[in-house]
Design a protein that fits this description.
The protein has 261 residues and is α+β, with helices and mostly antiparallel strands. 48% of the residues lie in helices and 12% in strands. The protein has helices at 29-46, 71-90, 108-120, 122-125, 140-143, 154-161, 165-178, 196-209, 218-222, 227-238, 242-246, 254-260; strands at 11-18, 48-56, 59-66, 102-106, 192-193. The protein has a five-stranded mixed beta sheet, sandwiched between helices. Helix 1 (29-46) runs antiparallel to helix 2 (71-90) and helix 10 (227-238) runs antiparallel to helix 12 (254-260). The longest helix is centred in the N-terminal third of the chain and has 20 residues, at 71-90.
Length: 261
């Protein structure tokens, strides 16, 4: 079963993709630059915000916010363009990335700080560098520059972070010293990261897109029921109307207590 892609307007995503068989996808500086160039072209063409990135030797992470329901078109453009460039340059054929990219729709208000820190510390955890500012292919130094790095949307980042540059550096430094928690351990149904109300909202959106689709985590998605569905089921089971169950003036009948439970 394939992973679910929840697409919509104004959605905040963490995106990642690995090299086929975990092989390197960036061999030299020109490759890193070319990938970022294609990402910038995608921004101009498909209109999204880039909040953070880190390009590791054999995979990448992006934090983006779409303005339209076009995530698949964005990622197809970036991955296909870079794969074509890579294959022509090295006279090779076939896939460069391993399967489809992975996308997680996240609650920006509650997870932006931790997702960006986790990404920026990737090169430190991999022991490529000792400090995040020493790694050239992430947005960390752009966060600490007044005008960004030419790729990220710095004004949007300032609003989302609710921190100045010095506060963010301390925040990331704390993650180095104490070992930051992994926000991806809290993912629900393979593609949602947020609190309970955020998860319920995205599950409602997903159910509208899932009719007859064979996707991973289908059981977790389809076992969610809205309040309206529960009321209708109880009303039908006991031969009552929705109005009877929802009447706040009457003393709660057994059927209403069951619906509430």
């Amino acid at each position: 079963a394939r992973p679910h892609r929840l697409q919509g307007e104004n959605r905040f995503y963490h995106i990642t993709s690995r090299g086929d068989d975990r092989k390197r996808v960036y061999i030299n500086d020109s490759d890193f630059k070319k990938f970022l160039e294609y990402t910038l072209r995608a921004k101009e063409r498909f209109k999204f915000y880039l909040y953070a990135y880190v390009l590791m030797p054999n995979h990448y992470h992006l934090l983006i916010e779409t303005l339209r329901p076009n995530l698949s078109r964005i990622m197809q453009y970036i991955n296909t363009s870079y794969t074509t460039y890579y294959n022509i340059k090295r006279k090779r054929y076939g896939h460069l990335f391993q399967g489809r990219y992975k996308s997680i729709v996240a609650d920006k208000d509650n997870y932006f700080q931790h997702l960006s820190r986790y990404m920026h510390l990737n090169p430190v955890r991999a022991k490529i560098v000792e400090r995040p500012e020493d790694y050239a292919w992430s947005s960390y130094n752009g966060y600490n520059s007044k005008n960004g790095d030419g790729y990220i949307d710095k004004d949007r980042i300032k609003d989302a972070l609710d921190m100045n540059e010095a506060e963010y550096r301390r925040f990331v430094s704390d993650g180095v010293e104490t070992g930051e928690s992994n926000p991806f351990k809290e993912i629900y149904a393979g593609f949602i990261l947020g609190n309970a109300s955020f998860i319920k909202e995205k599950l409602r959106d997903s159910k509208a897109q899932l009719e007859g689709e064979n996707i991973s985590y289908n059981r977790a998605l389809t076992r969610y029921f809205s309040a309206e569905e529960i009321i209708d089921a109880v009303a039908e089971r006991y031969g009552k109307s929705r109005e009877e169950l929802c009447d706040s003036k009457k003393r709660p009948m057994k059927e209403k207590r069951i619906a509430i439970y």
